Amino acid sequence: MSDRRRAFFAHRAAASGLFTLFTLIAIVLRLGDARPLALALGGALGSLFLLTRESVREALGDFAAPLAMVADLGLLFCAMSLTGGALSPYALLLPAGVALSWHCEGKAAARFFAVASLMGVAALVTLGQVPTGSAASLFALAGVALAAPALLVTLEIAAGASASSAEVPAALPETRKRVSTSESAAPPSPASSSTPTPTPSSPERDPEAEVLHDLRSPLSVIRVYTDLIQEAARRGELPNREYLDNLEREIELAERLVGTPLASPEPSPGPAELPAPQNADLVEILGSLATAYRLAHGGRIRIEFIAERPQLPVASDPVALQRAFRNVLDNAIKYTPDAGEVRIRAGAAGSQAFVVVKDTGMGMSPEESARAFDYAFRGRGAVASGRRGKGLGLAVTKEILEANGGKISLSSEAGYGSEVTILLPFQRGAR
Question: Which residue in 259, 298, 310, 397 is deepest, having the highest Cβ count within 10 Å?
Fold first, then answer.
């Protein structure tokens, strides 16, 4: 079961369980008419049964979670109108619903629930569901109306603080690098010429970490093809020739990655030491990658590849391009939520070939986009997501592409995904 499905089922169970508990208590204490409350209870249990059915959830797709939340709010406000209006004990479920939405469905769901809670309380007051004559009732009403938004603000502040503190270790190496550069560029003063002042060291490269980082992709694809071949063997079928060829290609890539020098061991990072540029076909490389990633992740997100030409021959090392494209695709897939999309497009732009990888993931702020290619940098959203990473992918990719005569750029907006553009020189006479 995917994390998103597990979170959806947990949200449904918790929300329905709390509503059932409050409704049973309201019926026992006779806080309202038992028959409508029993109908509301039946509606909650019915929506739980219906929306957690796999066939229904698949039919609704991305609408399942919003529809379930609207049903929760509708039943909750109906129960509040039956048991005292805005000052009903059911009002305790409003901030509880924000907390559940935050932890199970994310920030957007929690924001929707908080706004809907405020509007629902306002509607109950407008319909005369609460006395507003005394100061005590007005104070209580303000507490009920603001409880859900106040909890949302608290969660937002806490998430921002935790993301900022988690980002500090990743930001420190770049800070030290800039300090060291500025100090070394300044001319020594007479007072300091006799006694050297120690300067902070530059961030050290970790070649082994970069090897392991690049090996993750072929190893995950090898596992996928191995599982497919084993499944065919259990059915008594011969292995698919395409799967065998792709498996062999991934194993060869892993072997070559282990034997490829990745970076200079000197403290100050320089361009990656790569083989001299060779010839590669972008359509062949990206087509095989798209097929492999669909097999590995196609059940979670949509991966599309569009080639504007049947061939795009470039003057670059094919293994280096494999590393570069995999780093970009791994990032796009890792930070794109379930039911999202990653689109790969390749074509020609004058004397260069281009590759554009666009995703519908979490995106980055302008400040984070400006530092996306810094070594060991991770954005706040990436850190807060809890997904593992060391901020190596884009930095190493930039070095690889520049060593092969290429360029890379990033366009991103927080909450709306990212778009990576890569330019590579065509083979001579192959435009």
Answer: 397
pLDDT tens, 73-105? 999 999 998 998 878 889 899 989 888 888 888
CA distance 312 to 265: 35
C-alpha 22/C-alpha 45 separation (Å) is 13
Q: What pTM value is reported for the model? A: 0.44
Q: Of 90, 16, 6, 11, which is closest to residue 46 (Cα–Cα)?
A: 16
Summarize the confidence of residues 149-177 as an average pLDDT: 60
CB 60 within 8 A of CB 118: no
Burial category of 428 from C-beta neighbours within 10 Å (exposed 0-12, middle 13-18, buried 19 and up):
exposed
**CB-hemisphere CA count at 13 Å for 258?**
8
For residues 182 and 414, what is the distance between their CA atoms, to the nearest angstrom?
A: 32
Residue ranges in 83-106 assigned as alpha helix (H): 93-104
**Would you say 117 and 94 are in contact if contact means Cβ atoms under 8 Å apart?**
yes
Domain boundaries, the chain: 3-160, 207-425
> Going by CATH, does the domain composed of 207-425 fall within 3.30.565.10?
yes
Q: Is 69 exposed, middle or buried (0-12, 13-18, 19+ CB in 10 A)?
A: buried
CB-based burial, 72-102: b 16+ in 10 Å, e otherwise: bbebbbbbbbbbbbbbbebbebbbbbbbbbb
